[in-house]
Design a protein that fits this description.
Structural class: alpha/beta
Number of strands: 13
Helix content: 25-40%
Largest sheet: 8 strands, mixed
Bound molecules: ligand 48F
Radius of gyration: 18 Å
CATH architecture: 3-Layer(bba) Sandwich
CATH superfamily: FAD/NAD(P)-binding domain
Order of helices and strands: HEHEEHEEHEEEHEHEHEEHEH
Number of helices: 9
């Protein structure tokens, strides 16, 4: 066994995967629960999905459960998503369903990848490609380079649709709004900011607000609350899972309809 062959195999595979994803159907920014669910369902339909995660470990806010305790909850409406990703759960006397967050995080990552999504970690989306009043891709950089503040220019990926699944940070929408003279699909044309914890309306809000926020750019998961001024919900994850599923339904229809551009 020659050590250099190990290096060659890694470099060849990594750069082939990156090259293959420079032009894709959907870029999902952030590998939290909502993004991973959407990625899994979309890929299963044969849609080309590229998930970009800035951290070393995908899974977003799932791993920490509630305050670091490793269980969290869903309501019965979300059980089908757990079943589709082969995640176990038990019913609680409250009528909620409880799952192990380590199983959910690893199960969603494994499920999304096995269903065909290409997931890259350690890549940060730092900006967007915009032309003719539509988002057409993302500007990416190496997370470590950004952490160190090195002056390194980025690369780009083009996509038919981009999704901000970056959670509370809503980094993609924030950047779009800050750097460009654009009017978002919100009452003020700007991100409205997340509100305090109020579980029931928050869970409905995250699903209802899963939509296109600017031509070519969608939000799902917790970033919907930050963009549309909704409540947070704490460690109940049904809304996240159903938001990912709703995004899949919207995007698969848009792609099926031949990507009609709405401006
Ligand atoms: O926060 P996160 O888990 O997003 P989500 O799918 O789920 C929210 C819940 O986990 C929880 C909650 C439910 O009760 O409130 O917070 O909305 O995952 C977001 C992922 O996006 C990554 C980040 O590292 C995390 O893994 N991310 C954030 N900004 C970027 C990014 C960026 N600029 N580029 C790439 N990845």
């Amino acid at each position: 066994m020659k050590e250099i062959e190990i290096s060659r195999a890694i470099l060849k595979s990594h750069f082939n995967a990156l090259m293959d994803n420079l032009s894709t159907d959907v870029v999902i920014v952030g590998a939290g629960p909502s993004g991973l669910v959407a990625a899994g369902y979309l890929s299963e339909k044969g849609i080309k999905v590229t998930v970009l995660e800035k951290r070393l470990s995908p899974g977003g806010g799932v791993w920490g459960g509630g305050m670091g305790f490793k269980y969290a909850t869903v309501q019965k409406e979300a059980l089908k998503v757990l079943q589709d990703f082969n995640i176990s759960y038990v019913e609680d006397p409250s009528g909620l369903f409880v799952f192990d967050t380590i199983e959910l995080a690893s199960g969603l990552i494994f499920g999304a990848v096995k269903k065909g999504a290409q997931l890259f970690n350690l890549i940060t989306v730092e900006d967007l490609l915009i032309s003719e009043k539509r988002v057409r891709g993302v500007v990416i950089n190496n997370t470590f380079a950004l952490m160190e503040g090195f002056p390194i220019d980025p690369l780009t990926i083009e996509a038919k649709f981009v999704v901000d699944a970056t959670g509370h940070e809503h980094e993609v929408v924030k950047t779009l709004s800050r750097k460009n003279d654009v009017k978002l699909n919100t009452p003020t044309g700007k991100p409205l900011g997340e509100r305090s914890l109020f579980a029931e309306p928050a869970e409905k809000g995250v699903v209802n607000n899963t939509k296109e926020v600017y031509p070519g750019l969608f939000v799902c998961g917790m970033s919907t609350a930050a963009v549309f001024g909704y409540y947070r919900m704490g460690p109940i994850f049904g809304g996240m899972l159903l938001s990912g599923k709703k995004l899949f339904e919207i995007l698969s229809k848009r792609l099926q309809d031949g990507d009609k551009e709405k401006t």
